[in-house]
Amino acid sequence: MAFKEGDRILLIDEKGKKFMVTLGDRSELHTHGGVLDLNEILGKEPGFKAITHKDNEFTVVYPNLIDYLEKMRKLPQTIQPKDACHIIANTGLHSGQNVVEAGVGSGALTLFLCSIVDPGTVTSYEIREDFANLSRKNIKEWGTTNSTIKLQDIYEGIDERDIDLVALDLPEPDKVTQHALEALRPGGHIFSFSPTIEQVIRFQDSLRYRDWMEIRTIECIVREYEKRKMGTRPKTLMVGHTGYMTFARKR
Known about the structure:
Blueprint: E1 8-13, E2 18-22, E3 28-31, E4 34-37, E5 48-51, E6 57-61, H1 65-71, H2 81-91, E7 99-102, H3 108-117, E8 122-126, H4 129-142, E9 147-151, E10 163-168, H5 177-183, E11 184-194, H6 197-206, E12 212-218, E13 225-228, E14 231-234, E15 244-250
Parallel strand pairs: 7-8, 7-10, 8-9, 10-11
Antiparallel strand pairs: 1-2, 1-6, 3-4, 5-6, 11-15, 12-15, 13-14
């Protein structure tokens, strides 16, 4: 499909650096590799090679969800895709299911969950209006329609019932355990993302074994490899600890 005005596009230079713009918002993109005339991209197909005034090449494609999550505006730190993907692996989350989430932050996890469960729904609890407003903006820009954000404190309770997953990115997830138990269907899951092990300990202590099963905590550390003429080896820098992920399943 040819690019047209109003399309969101992704430009990737020869070193892999990405720029996301909306055609029609501006006529030029200024980069370290030179200036791109964005009007030249109109009418072209994905894979088009745009050339800067310095003769540097950019490949033009439509962004996918991960591209958008990487480039969208953020206020608080977001859960990275490397961690979010473990929600699917450990809960079996799939299309048509319904999720309750708190707090919404910038909406990154919300968008990830919405894409998985569509046409199911994601209801997000958030107490900060600025976070809620930014999340709504990010979600609307991507075009997601199965998200609802509520300015409400999940520590006070969960309104929804027969939920498949309660996903928490909160300082005190242990305060939500009983509310989640009441909201989840039998066999439904609770998930908590916590930066510190002390939060994990308190959360696990709140999971009474007569009510919960399959309780486990994991972390995901990613080490990328690079291939060079002299040999292949791990990259010097790696994505280390970002947070602990705890899962449990309602009996």
